[in-house]
Amino acid sequence: MTKVFFILCCLLCVQQDEPVISWNESYKLSWSDFKDKPDKSTSAVAITASGITFGFSVSATEDRVVDFTSEVHTHFYPEKSWYKKEQADHHVLGHEQLHFDITELYARKFRYRIEQIVVSNSVRAQLKTLHNTINKELSQMQNRYDSETNYSRNVEAQTKWKLYIADELKKFSKYKSID
Q1: pLDDT of 156 over the 60 cut
Q2: Do residues 133 and 109 make contact, with C-beta atoms less than 8 angstroms apart?
Q3: Mind telling me which Pfam families this protein's record contains (predicted)?
Q4: Nearest 5°: phi and psi at 175?
Q5: What pTM was computed for the model?
Q6: Are 134 and 4 in contact, with CB atoms under 8 Å apart?
Q7: Which of 28, 70, 71, 98 has the highest Cβ tally under 10 A?
Q8: What is the DSSP letter of 153?
Q9: Buried residues in 61-87 as b, exposed as e (16+ CB within 10 A)
Q10: How far apart are CA 173 and CA 101, in angstroms?
Q11: Are strands 21-22 and 46-61 parallel, antiparallel or unpaired?
Q12: What spatial distance separates the first Cα and last Cα of the chain, rounded to whole Å?
């Protein structure tokens, strides 16, 4: 059984010295990226800690917002991710990679939705609400993925999810991470 642990926070909350791996379409996770000690008290074989970091800046003149910028990043946290060597295999690693890919998908959806925001004095509130919405959607998707694949044990469902996420990433390719 595998589970996912995802970290969803603002850029300001991320410790500068915490090691991260930024999502990149040409890089695939390996077991050597999982640095934390496994939790022997759980039946989980591996835990992937990944998340979306987000920050924004608003430009205003007097009492009117005139512009804003934002940053959205997808990260894997090696020091919070682990696996049980005696039970882990390539199939489980593929399951964990897909958790990271799902996080990237929601970062892309987040960037897409940010692009739709019209500059106004409520932009701060809109961005915060959108951030919370994306976090909830991401959490629901990660849980659905684990449930439908039975934590990687349902090989047919795992294959369907891999194809689905690859297709979704293509749909939002304009918004991919460029770290």
Answers
A1: yes
A2: no
A3: DUF922 (PF06037)
A4: -110, 20
A5: 0.91
A6: no
A7: 98
A8: T
A9: eeeeeeebebebbbbbbbebbbbbeee
A10: 12
A11: unpaired
A12: 31
Q: Which of 121, 99, 123 is nearest to 44 (CA)?
A: 99
Cβ count within 10 A of residue 17: 5
Q: What are phi and psi of 99, to 5 degrees?
A: -60, -45
Tokens (6 digits) for 92: 């489980």
Strands (DSSP E) along the chain, which ranges? Answer: 2-6, 9-10, 21-22, 46-61, 64-76, 82-83
pLDDT in tens, 34-76: 999 999 999 999 999 999 999 999 999 999 999 999 999 999 9
The position carrying tokens 């039975």 is 150
| CA atoms of 141 and 139, how far apart (whole Å) | 5
Q: Write out the H or E segment, with its range, that includes residue 91.
A: helix 90-116
User: How confident is the model over 75-98, as pLDDT tens digits?
Assistant: 999 999 999 999 999 999 999 999
CA pair distance 99, 76, nearest whole angstrom: 10
Domain-wise residue ranges, the chain? 2-175
